[in-house]
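Researcher: Here's a chain I'd like modeled. Treat it as a single chain, no partners, no ligands.
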Amino acid sequence: MQIVTDGEMPEIPEQIESELSPAELGIAVDIGTTTIAVSVWALSRRKHLVTVAEKNNQVRYGYDIIRRISFAIRPPLTGSSSVVETGHSALHYCIISQLEKMFSKAVLEAGSRLPRGYQPRVTQLVITGNTTMLSFLAATSVNNMAAAPFTPASLFDTVTTWEKIRNGTVYPHCTVLDKPTPELLQIFNSSVIAPDTEVYLPPCIGAFIGADTVCAMISAGFPVPEAKNDPSTLRPWESKVKAPLLLADIGTNSELCLYVPDSEGKKGKILCTSAASGPAFEGANISCGMPSIEGAIDKITYLHDKLNCHTIGDKNPKGLCGTGLISAAAVMLKNKYIDKAGIIIREKSKLGDGTSCIELTPAVYLSQQDIRNLQLAKSAVKTGLEFLLEHTEETPVFCIAGGFGSKINLEEATYIGLLPAQLEKRTIQLGNASLSGASALLFSNVLREKARALAKKSVQINLAGIPEFQQRFLKGIDF
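Model: Modeled as a single isolated chain. Structure tokens:
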């Protein structure tokens, strides 16, 4: 599976600790709603050794966080005589068992890259993710995240141990878990992570702006807003940021952040919001949708009056991934296969239920409902971006993070209205900024301090609570 794991590491303020053994490893983890990435580092050299990435096994309980929260808080399933499993236990043990297996694979491979004679030893972990994913990991309750005012049980910024994470005892208020199954106990007993290994969970900003966003802000170089426009407030390793910065991690739940620098004595600020864009950008809820793996159509071109498909790995087309969906919409809109309302007007085919579709290959098609799902997703993101842009007079530098954002064609995304036009020429694609930010926290207490400050200084805005949100969203549906 092709999951973007590369990203730009921020500058590390501290010097490398000379007493560290070459055998000591640090692991950074990014738990995404759809994907998980595990990155192993040699702490004594700050050298990246290996990255392992997989689809998040929790998708079996729902593609988005709302469905997973609903599953977590449902009444326990009961058999004929006993309770089978609680939802929060299922989600917790699902992610723990997957991480244990990924750690084993990653450490084994990393060990082969150490100097001869050294056995790998993991001494610390940094695990980031959105607030819901970290709640499932740490076994904290998500009951209050199912309805307004959406109050998480914890915003983390916690140093704990792997044993406490695994057992769901990080906090006194953690939910009571079912007993692990014999299979789980066997996985725990063979873990490559010692029970007392230090684990750092970075701070979250709110219910839907998580630690992954804070880590991405560190990677993107967001400064901490200070009370005065005073260079003396900057750390020696920081430079003054004069232009506004706009960060977007577009996915199932899209997080958006705007840094507005100090000006004319006005204090700088960071505004954050999230857009429930749904899983269309991940290739889900699309008729022939699929992840970005070999055989997925990732690019559409129009040549000789015909749509032509390019696939990842140049394999036979099996389906359509998120970037292919954007490309298809842009090409079909430009060549009048669909109109601005998204209605199919050219080369229609009919599905079994009589609805319209456009055939891309004999095995892959795009239905009318697929186009509508894309429109809803892109309008959610565009509405959030346009709202934040209204809070700065100068066009910001646009930092787009995450696997989807790293692969999309910016011109096509702008053409269909996913990205505001003024951002196209001021965009930097960061890759997996969350993972690179988490990796930096393995090495730097100063950056951990900065993460706390960024989370504390950020102002979270609920888009749905804005009076004109519904009108803006509806207006943004058309291409």
